[in-house]
Amino acid sequence: MKFTQILKAMFTPAIRLPAAECFARVGKGAAVLVDVREPSEWTDGVADLAALLPLSNLNGDRKLWDPFLAAQRTAGREILVYCAAGGRSALVAKALAAEGYRVANVGSLKEWSAAGWKIVPPAP
Question: Is residue 9 within 8 Å of 89, Cβ to Cβ?
Fold first, then answer.
């Protein structure tokens, strides 16, 4: 991201939702769940149905993020982001909100697991 985008994102509020409140949204297809951790972190498991899009790609060339974001905007889906502890997902939520996306930080993988969401191995 460019410096001006980072600065704008710093001052953009982002919604923080508990995982359990988001189950129905994801299940109905009204929202998409995104794991923003790095690929090396996915080996311990990911939330079922989560798209795997690392923060580094959002801040880099966005080859993964740009087509994904375009598809979500076209479909009118909310984007729900999580990471290992909730910090990176907060940054992503702010950045995407600053770009005009409907997005919420839904915390950590541990929160999703504790709320009863299935954790699965990452797809190859």
Answer: no
pLDDT digits (tens, 9 = 90+) for 38-68: 999 999 999 999 999 999 999 999 999 999 9
- Name the residue ranges covered by the structural domains of the chain: 3-120
Q: What is the CATH number of domain 3-120?
A: 3.40.250.10
For every residue of 84-98, DSSP letters joined together read: SSSHHHHHHHHHHHH
pLDDT tens, position by position, 3-39: 555 555 565 668 899 988 899 999 999 999 999 999 9
Tokens 């297809």 map to which residue?
29
Cα(26)–Cα(78) distance, integer angstroms: 9
**SS3 (DSSP) at 14:** coil
Residue pair 33/51 in contact by the 8 Å Cβ criterion: yes
Under DSSP, is residue 81 helix (H, G, I), strand (E, B) or coil? strand
Bridge partners, residue 35, by sequence: 52, 82
Q: What is the C-alpha separation between 26 and 79, in angstroms, rounded?
A: 9
* Residue 117: closest CA among 13, 109, 95, 101: 109
